[in-house]
Each structure stands twice: as structure tokens, then as C-alpha cells.
Design a protein that fits this description.
The complex is a heterodimer of chains A (185) and B (638). In chain A, strand 4 and strand 5 form a beta hairpin. Chain A is 48% helix and 14% strand. Chain A has 185 residues and is an alpha+beta fold. In chain A, strands 4-5-3-6-7 form a five-stranded mixed beta sheet, covered by helices on one side. In chain A, strands 1-2 form a two-stranded antiparallel ribbon. Chain B has 638 residues and is α/β, with parallel strands linked by helices. Chain B is built from 23 helices and 18 strands. In chain B, strands 2-1-3-4-5 form a five-stranded mixed beta sheet, covered by helices on one side. In chain B, strands 11-10-14-12-13 form a five-stranded mixed beta sheet. The termini of chain B are far apart. The chains are: A alpha+beta (185), B alpha/beta (638). The complex binds flavin mononucleotide (FMN) and FE2/S2 (inorganic) cluster. Flavin mononucleotide binds next to strand 9 and helix 20 of chain B.
Chain lengths: 185, 638
């Protein structure tokens, strides 16, 4: 694909990505690839690093990785879709991970998940249209004693019941309000 | 690998040890109080980092400069955040349920002043006349800490703490023994793998050592995929060097130069602490080329998993390390004969490895004297669910479930009744009251239909539905099945569909028989233990709680009032207080409103069954109840 031929392309979810963003992602990917040898065993660490940098795994990045390792593209895609950690669409600004491990489930994690879904108006695995939040589930983050747990931006929060969901969202809203004021000023 | 420079190993280590000792001693020599904050994941979820900051800020305001360090998990997770203050003249005291306000007070009144704030004390770490110590707790009679001995007491990011507390001594001694001697010692100790299968560790090492083929590999399995277990996380976060030391000794005994620690992706803090620990061990030449001047070289790579339960299975884990999708393969050949890249490979669990240095230090006979005839040593459990003292426990094998749940865990909270305990995660089962006197060991749990598994123990009370938990585990295994075996892939899907029907009140009598038949087929038709054990949660709940299945099927009723489709929330008009509207305000979907008599009524159409109103209703009224089946709700009187 010749990047010059088009000014916009579509990412995995069909959203349009600007040419600059695409070029930037490509640069980042190539930079990461340079630090890894061309061995198959590096595939998962590479994918992890690219996702950490770009937030998700764009199709172009997966193709670059396949070329770098000299393996079929389908092998990269197969690994990406096998593991729960990898995502094919861009994340929201804030990540919400509701724990549905045994302890959290039995203490009402499924009710908490419902509350998040209702408030954010999205399903698990989705991102809000304004790209503020993405919602997903995780199976035990190892602090079962604080069940039900929700991991908000990589920080586990204990005892998250529907009212605390509202509290957490309110805090984000206030923060956003404060930032908004700053830019206005 | 013959070592003939033994004095060098000993003297090199002596040097490292004396430096570590003086570093550790400095903490106490300053005459200042030493403050320790538990910041493992469990502590962080409870706000330990805020507590740590409050302590640092207050110390600065007070102008006191005393050592503060972060430690791991003491096992008393129910009381997190935990702070330990060791002040000269006092026993080291552990405070529980600390928040930033309490933290400030502790600094002001105890660190600076002389009031040990007894109202916040959880227990002292040593016996004394002032406050009860942990040793006086009833649970202390049952606990025996071997693997967890350092957890919560040392700074996991400072190798000197580990060394000063007896760490790496065993490695220095092991390097002066012959590999065969070490293997014999481990075999004699009777240590069995703690990852689930319970295979003799010494035998596994011997097979791998005696299999020709180079290079060989050693892997620490820290994938801990059981979605209700956190022992391995706690150990890696609290005492990573004990696992690393165990892995180095394994490598020396088996003849391995390259090792891996495979950590689960969901454990970022464990990853970080292991990474730091590896770097520090390397710096002191306890890892790397020619360890402690011997001719043994060994390197460890940290590999992060990517979130797939099946990767805990050793052959899937190996596939994952090779950069492939983590699908198990047929065994035999077992990894000790053909593992990573087809080479001889030992895979051991975190707890297995952490036991190794202790066994070599104290001798095989010591370890073999703990536990039962067939299961030696201790078992580490993660207690969670409906139990008062959630957290980590380590007890000798052979302790009964009742002792662990009621004596160590202090039983069920809120005066509820015990119903079952789920052991071994998705591969295990739910054991009822009648099984509580079973001694915990590999054989008796399997006999009862459960499994030792990894050590997750989730306690369930009368509010937990047994059909729902079976459905939950099937949903988990069905999602995590890698899809290789037809029975595992499709059988679990069918079982899940049947169980879902039952929890929706749409099950039939015939479903029970189909479930049993499918369970048998999935067990026999699957390659790895994921499929082989997936039906266990269903089989045990059917075996011990068939009545609950029947209530769902014949009456459309969930006896535990848990299955959302089979319950409704209802406000008892004779109990609802006119002047109170606690529920109206908290309802997350505005489904509650007062009627003409100002009695609150739930609009069943709008209600999402989020339980918020039930918790908001003041206890003196207790007017909100759950009814099952939902048809129990009287016709609306609006
Ligand atoms: C589905 C499945 C998941 C497993 N998960 C783990 C795990 O999370 N941690 C672990 O140590 N062993 C796990 N095992 C067991 C490993 O296959 C292997 O037996 C173990 O790591 C060997 O170490 P040990 O001898 O020290 O127990 C799992 C097995 C299966 C079938
Ligand atoms: S079950 Fe949620 S943290 Fe373990």
C-alpha cells in the first residue's frame, strides 16, 4: 500500500485515520521492530510493545511485524486474536476493566458490569463514541479480597458497586470540567 | 558440573552477606522508628499508596527523618491497608484498616509522640505485654509459614533485605553440592508440584537431567490463571527472590543455562518487582555468568503472558514462549523429555520453587515431617468470597477445610450460613458442609470431586446460587478453551447453554441427564486438563446440591435469590417508613417512587436489579426484599 496514494485510510474498525497519524504509527512500529531480532519467539513481546505504544494493533503494524519476522500475516493475526490482551481497535482515554473473577462475580461483579454498561451506554469490548472510555472485563486481578473490583486506568479499585460507579464517573467529569476551564482561560 | 573452588563461593557470598546484613542493620541502628507499608496489589486496591504518601508528608511536616519502606502482603488482606511501625522500646506493631487520616495520627502520636494508638492495632509481630501479637491469634495454631515466611516483612525491591533474612545462603551452599545430591534431597523431601498436578518435583528434575539433549530449559510457571486465586501474585510481589533462588537451584541441579519466568499479564506489579529483583541478583553475580565464581552460568528472562488461561498448562505455556498461540499438545512426551523447542524442559510453579531453598536449608527430613503420609509440606491458600478473614494462609497439608475456613478464616461474615467452598478454580469443585472435615491433601480433595488445583478457595454462603456458580465456571472454561479438541470446544458450549437455560428458569428435567452425559464425554474427549476437569464444577454441584437445580427447573425459583431472571425486588408496604426516601434517591434508574400513601413502590418494568436500594434501606426498617419467583410480587397497588 502506497501511503502517498491516499490521504486517509481506515483502521480495523472502519474509522478514518489521517495520513499523518498513519505515518507516525508506522515510524513507532519500525522503531520498536529495530530493537528486536528476527526470531519468532519475539512475536508476543513485539506485539505487547507496539500495543503499549499505539494503544492497539493497527492492521499496518501487524503487517510490518509479519514482514520483519518473515512469517505469514495470518500467523500474526492468529496470535493477536488468540490472546485476550491484544486489541484491534483504538482504546478510550480511560480504560475500565470490570473484574469477573470468581470472588468478584459472586460478590456482584456482574451487577457492577451492568452499571458501567448502563452509564457508558456501551457493551463490553467497546469504546464510547467520544473516545473517553473503553469497557472490558478481566478475570481476576489478584485482589479478590476487595471484591467486586474494577480496574480504572490500571489502578484496581475495591468494592465498586453501582453507586461507586457513579462516583468514579463524577470524578472524571469534574476533572474534565476543570481542564475545560483551563483551556477556556 | 564439578565445582572445585568451594572456598571462593563461600567467601564471595560471605562478602555479599555481610554487606546486606549491615544495610539491614542500619535500619534499626539509627534508633529511629522504622515504618513499613504493605503495597502489594491488595493493599493498593484498598488505598495503600495514599497512606504511604500521607505518612511521608506528615513525617516531613514533623521534620522527622526515619526509614520508610514498602513491603508486600502479610496475608491479612481483609484489614488492608496495613502499616507496621517498629519503634525502639516497643514491639513492632501492625496497624490495620489504615487510611490517610489514621496514618497522620500514627506519625504524630506514635512516631513523634509516645502513644501507640492502640485503637488501630491489628496485632504485634512479637509476643509482648502491651498488645496481643499475631502469635496469640487463634489462627496461629494452624499456620505454618514456609513459602510466605518473608512476605510483608521485607522490601521486595531490595535484595539486601532478602539476603539479610537468610536469602541466597542456600544457593551458595547448593553450588558446593553435586547436582545429584540436590535432586536426591528434593526427592527425599517428598515435595510435589504446587501448580495443580502434584507430580514429584525431584523426579521431574531427575528425568530432565538424565534426558540427553542440549540446551535444557527451566521455566517458572507464574501464569496463575485460576480466576479466584492470588497466591503466586502475592509471592512474586512480596518476595520475588525466593522464587528466583529456587529457579537458580533448579537450573543447577538439572543442568540448565537458560530460564524463563512466565508471568500473567494481569499482574503488572508482579512483573515490575520481578524485573527489579532479576536486575539486582545479576548485579551481585547471583545470576548470570559464573555465578559466585563457580563454573555454573544461568540467565533468566522475564516473559509476560497475554491473558489466556490455557497458557498455565505447561505445553501451552511453552507454545506461547515460542511465539505461537498457546495451544496444549498431546503428552507424552512430557516437557522434561521434550519441551521448549523440543528440548528437555522443567516447568515448575512459583510455590514449588519458593519451597526449594527452604528444603535444602532445613533438610529433606524436616520438610517430610510436615504434612501427611502422602502429601508433604504446606499448602498455600487464597481465601476469598464470603469469609471474614480474606487473605493468604499457609497451613500444613492435612489441616481440615473446617479449620482453614472457621479457625483461620474466622467463618462467614454477617451471621450468614456456610453453604459451600469452591476449591481449585475452574478445574475444581464446590464442596458442601459435609466435606468440611476432609484433610486437605492431593488425594482426598480429588476423591471428593474437587481438586487441590492452584490453591484458590472461594467461600460461598446461603446467598450464593450453586447453579449460577457452575454456569459461571462453564462460561469461563468455554471462553478460555483454545478450541483444539471438539469435545472441549463444543461440549462446554452445550453445557453452558443448558446451565444458562436453568438459571433463566427455562430448564427441563431432561437437561440434568444431558448435562451428566456431556460431562462424561468432555472429560474423556479432551487432550489437556482444561477440558478434562471443566465439568468438575457442574458435577460437584449436581452431586451435592441437586435440590437447587430442581427448584430452578420445577418452580422457577432460585433458593439463593441470586439468579437475576428468577428474582424481583419488592418493598414491603407494612415495613416501609413514610418519612424516609433513602431508596428513591439511590435508585440508579429512577424506578422507585412513592404512592399516594407515601409508601415507596418499585416499577418492575424499570428495575434493573442492581441491589442498591436494598443496601440503602435503613436497617431499622429493612423493608426491601428479594422474591423468587418474581410472580410472588403482589399485583401493583399504585
Ligand atoms: C488449564 C490448566 C491451567 C494451568 N494453570 C497453571 C497455573 O496457572 N500455574 C501453574 O503453576 N500451573 C498450572 N497448570 C499446571 C501446569 O500444567 C504444570 O503442571 C505445572 O506448572 C507444573 O509445575 P509443578 O510441578 O511445580 O506443579 C495448569 C494446567 C492446566 C491444565
Ligand atoms: S476475582 Fe476479582 S480480583 Fe480476583
Amino acid at each position: 500500500m502506497n501511503p502517498k496514494a491516499k490521504t486517509v485510510t481506515q483502521n480495523n474498525t472502519g474509522e478514518e485515520v489521517s495520513a499523518e497519524k498513519e505515518a507516525r504509527d508506522r515510524q513507532e512500529t519500525l522503531k520498536i521492530l529495530k530493537s528486536f531480532g528476527r526470531k519468532r519467539e519475539n512475536l508476543i513481546p513485539i506485539l505487547q510493545k507496539v500495543q503499549a505504544r499505539l494503544g492497539y494493533l493497527p492492521r499496518e503494524a501487524m503487517m510490518e511485524i509479519a514482514t520483519h519476522l518473515g512469517i505469514p500475516e495470518i500467523d500474526v493475526y492468529g496470535v493477536v486474536t488468540f490472546y485476550n490482551q491484544f486489541r484491534l481497535n483504538p482504546p478510550g482515554k480511560h480504560s475500565i476493566r470490570v473484574c469477573l473473577g470468581t470472588a468478584c462475580h459472586m460478590k456482584g461483579g456482574y451487577i457492577t458490569l451492568d452499571a458501567w454498561k448502563r452509564r457508558l451506554d456501551i457493551n463490553q469490548g467497546e469504546t464510547t463514541p467520544d473516545r473517553e472510555f473503553d469497557l472490558d472485563t478481566v478475570a481476576c486481578v489478584g485482589c479478590c479480597t476487595m471484591a467486586p473490583v474494577t480496574v480504572v486506568d490500571n489502578q484496581p479499585e475495591g468494592k465498586v458497586e453501582p453507586t461507586k460507579v457513579d462516583g468514579i464517573l463524577l470524578a472524571f467529569e469534574l476533572e474534565r470540567g476543570a481542564e475545560g476551564q483551563k483551556t477556556v482561560r | 558440573m564439578k565445582v572445585d573452588e568451594s572456598p571462593t563461593i563461600a567467601s564471595l557470598f560471605e562478602e555479599i552477606k555481610s554487606q546486606a546484613d549491615s544495610h539491614w542493620q542500619e535500619l534499626f541502628d539509627s534508633g529511629q522508628p522504622v515504618i513499613v507499608v504493605g503495597t502489594a496489589t491488595c493493599g493498593r486496591a484498598a488505598g495503600a499508596l495514599d497512606v504511604l504518601k500521607a505518612i511521608r508528608d506528615e513525617l516531613e511536616r514533623q521534620g522527622v527523618d526515619c526509614p520508610v519502606f514498602e513491603a508486600g502482603c502479610l496475608g491479612h488482606c481483609y484489614a488492608e491497608p496495613l502499616v507496621i511501625i517498629g519503634k525502639p522500646g516497643y514491639p513492632p506493631i501492625c496497624y490495620g484498616y489504615v487510611n490517610p487520616v489514621i496514618a497522620e495520627r500514627l506519625v504524630k502520636e506514635f512516631v513523634v509522640g509516645d502513644n501507640p494508638c492502640l485503637e488501630f492495632v491489628l496485632g504485634a509481630l512479637e509476643a509482648n505485654d502491651l498488645v496481643p501479637s499475631f502469635a496469640d491469634f487463634p489462627r496461629a495454631t494452624y499456620e505454618k509459614k514456609i513459602v510466605l515466611r518473608n512476605c510483608g516483612h521485607i522490601d521486595p525491591t531490595d535484595i539486601n533485605h532478602y539476603i539479610a533474612n537468610g536469602g541466597y545462603v542456600t544457593l551458595s551452599k547448593a553450588l558446593q553440592m553435586s547436582p545429584e545430591e540436590i535432586i536426591t534431597e528434593i526427592k527425599d523431601s517428598g515435595l510435589k508440584g504446587r501448580g495443580g498436578a502434584g507430580f514429584s518435583t525431584g523426579q521431574k528434575w531427575e528425568i530432565c537431567r538424565n534426558t540427553p539433549g542440549r540446551p535444557k530449559y527451566a521455566i517458572c510457571n507464574a501464569d496463575e490463571g485460576d480466576p479466584g486465586a492470588f497466591m503466586d501474585r502475592a509471592i512474586l510481589e512480596s518476595d520475588p527472590h525466593s522464587v528466583i533462588e529456587g529457579l537458580i537451584i533448579t537450573a543447577y541441579a538439572v543442568g540448565v543455562r537458560n530460564g524463563y519466568i512466565y508471568v500473567r499479564a494481569e499482574y503488572p506489579l508482579a512483573v515490575e518487582r520481578v524485573r527489579i529483583a532479576l536486575r539486582q541478583a545479576k548485579k551481585l553475580n547471583l545470576l548470570g555468568r559464573r555465578i559466585l565464581g563457580s563454573d555454573f552460568s544461568f540467565d533468566i528472562r522475564l516473559f509476560e503472558g497475554s491473558g489466556a488461561f490455557v497458557c498455565g498448562e505447561e505445553t501451552a505455556l511453552i507454545a506461547s514462549l515460542e511465539g505461537k498461540a498457546g495451544m496444549p499438545r498431546h503428552r507424552p512426551p512430557y516437557p522434561p523429555t521434550s519441551g521448549l523447542y523440543g528440548k528437555p524442559t522443567v516447568v515448575n510453579n512459583v510455590k514449588t520453587l519458593a519451597s526449594v531453598p527452604q528444603i535444602l536449608t532445613n533438610g529433606a527430613a524436616w520438610f517430610a515431617s510436615i504434612g501427611t503420609e502422602k502429601s508433604k509440606g504446606t499448602a498455600v491458600f487464597a481465601l476469598a468470597g464470603k469469609i471474614v478473614n480474606t487473605g493468604l494462609v499457609e497451613v500444613p497439608m492435612g489441616t481440615t477445610l473446617r479449620q482453614v475456613i472457621f479457625d483461620v478464616g474466622s467463618g462467614i461474615p454477617n451471621g450468614k450460613r456456610f453453604k459451600a467452598v469452591q476449591i481449585g478454580g475452574p478445574s475444581g469443585g464446590c464442596l458442601p458442609e459435609s466435606a468440611l472435615d476432609l484433610p486437605i491433601d492431593f488425594d482426598s480433595l480429588t476423591e471428593a470431586g474437587a481438586m487441590m488445583g492452584s490453591g484458590g478457595m472461594v467461600v460461598l454462603d446461603e446467598d450464593d446460587c450453586m447453579v449460577e456458580i457452575a454456569r459461571y465456571f462453564l462460561e469461563f472454561t468455554q471462553r478460555e478453551s483454545c478450541g483444539k479438541c471438539t469435545f472441549c470446544r463444543l461440549g462446554t458450549k452445550q453445557m453452558l447453554a443448558l446451565l444458562s437455560d436453568i438459571t433463566l428458569g427455562e430448564g427441563t428435567q431432561a437437561d440434568i441427564d444431558i448435562l451428566k452425559a456431556l460431562a462424561r464425554d468432555v472429560k474423556t474427549g479432551s487432550l489437556c486438563s482444561l477440558g478434562k476437569t471443566a465439568p468438575n464444577p457442574v458435577l460437584t454441584t449436581l452431586r451435592y446440591f441437586e435440590g437447587e437445580y430442581q427448584a430452578h427447573i420445577t418452580e422457577g425459583r432460585c433458593p439463593a435469590l441470586m439468579c437475576q431472571h428468577l428474582i424481583a425486588y419488592y418493598i414491603l408496604p407494612n415495613k416501609c417508613e413514610r418519612s424516609c426516601d433513602a431508596c428513591v434517591g439511590t435508585c440508579t434508574v429512577e424506578a422507585i417512587s412513592p404512592n399516594k400513601k407515601r409508601i415507596k413502590v418499585i416499577d418492575q418494568e424499570k428495575c434493573v436489579k442492581c441491589n442498591t436500594c436494598l443496601m440503602a434501606c435503613p436497617p431499622q426498617y429493612n423493608a426491601i426484599v428479594k422474591l423468587s419467583p418474581p410472580s410472588e410480587v403482589p399485583a401493583a397497588e399504585k
